[in-house]
Amino acid sequence: MGTAFCDLLETHRDETLLSMQAFTTAEPIIRQxxxxxxxxxxxxxxxxxxxxxxxxxxx
Length: 59
What we know:
Layout: H1 2-11, H2 13-24, H3 28-51
Helix pairs in contact: 1-2
């Protein structure tokens, strides 16, 4: 995963850094949009796991 992140930084440095900053900003509207976007990603991944009948791990 570390190698993949380094590769991503080499090919998409600005986008990666902007994304990282968005997660840490104190600006309310940006935080809201980041949370909404992350919730959408989570929902898509969750639905794909459910369709594939992969159980949710117990934590």
